Amino acid sequence: MSKLRNSLISAAVALSQSSLTTGAFAATVAEGANVAGAMHVSFSNGLLKMAGNLYLPPNYDRNKKYPAVVVAHPWGGVKEQTAGLYAQKLAEKGFVTLAFDASHYGESGGEPRDLESPADRVQDIRSAVGYLTNLPQVDANRIGALGICAGGGYTLHEAQTDLRVKAVAGVVAYDIGDATRNGIEGSPVSATDRLNLLKSVDAQLNKEAAGGPVLVQQLLPSREKIDASTPNFVREAVDYYLAVRGGHPNAKNRYVVTSPGLHFAYYPLEHMELVSPRPVLLIAGERAETLRFSQAAYATAQQPKELMVIPGASHFDLYDKPQYVVPAVTKLAEFFGRHL
Question: Where are the domains of the chain?
Fold first, then answer.
């Protein structure tokens, strides 16, 4: 097994040095630039087969052991999008990094497709940590975890009870439970909204219990449906996910409509104190409608902890815009470099 892993790592180094030829023909950034230098890998998550992209540092030395970072993607995303970008940039700073498709998404297993289950997402991260722990090129005592958007909320939650994670960070962390119950800035959720959503989930669950199919609907509206009344958060999401900038054919822009029923009772940030004395870093945008989630996580966490608010940045600016991603990656590299 060790020889096999070594040969795979060597192949990844060669790929990194030559870059991906497919990138020249990619339709989107996510299909090309964000995967340059990555090696496709797979690992087990119980009975599921998970798919990931493994990134190695420049001038990789097979005789050395490296610190490593798991990177979890947003709700509805895949490994080639913003998670792949952050994994790639951190690898350039000297880390072995792994961006992976969550179960039910992309090239990973899991049925039904496009189900957003917090419990499954947390277990996905656990399995990714286990995969890195067993790579001979990784120092098992120097593994960190990073999540973006909903991946940030899940990663912060997972680290609370996984001592293998020695340092944890969230970029524009999104508490999918709080967002479902109360909304985000500019898009509040009322008590009536909550009741109606739960009723619709229950009705669909009853249909499925009677033998009906799982109902999957569009997650974001089509670009042609964006107008002056569209909330800014949705507008920016469409500008990223449904455009050349961030779109990927494996990100289907769909969700299982009963997923929010799993989100209502999810409280990922309530016990951030459990991470201590391991360090926590939170990075958010000054203009992000989700800023309060990072602030809440910071308030609950104990030392050592840091909160970096990037001036002028919105939530989706921190997905890929260089003027915001560069300082975020610089901070992440310093943080993981100091604590791993």
Answer: 2-335
Q: Within 13 Å, how many C-alpha atoms sit on residue 59's CB side?
A: 2
Structure tokens at 54: 């493994």
**Which CATH fold topology does 2-335 show?**
Rossmann fold (3.40.50)
pLDDT tens for each residue of 285-304: 999 999 999 999 999 999 99
β-strand partners of 134: none
Looking at residue 141, the DSSP 8-state letter turns out to be: E
Q: Tokens for 202, please give them.
A: 């229950």
- Kindly report, residue by residue over 148-162, the tens digit of the pLDDT: 999 999 999 999 999
The DSSP secondary-structure symbol of 215 reads: P
Radius of gyration of the chain (CA): 19
Sign of CA dihedral 128, 131, 137, 142: positive
Q: Is 95 exposed, middle or buried (0-12, 13-18, 19+ CB in 10 A)?
A: buried
Four-point Cα dihedral 153, 156, 160, 166, nearest 10? 160
The answer to whether the predicted template modeling score (pTM) of the entire model surpasses 0.90 is yes
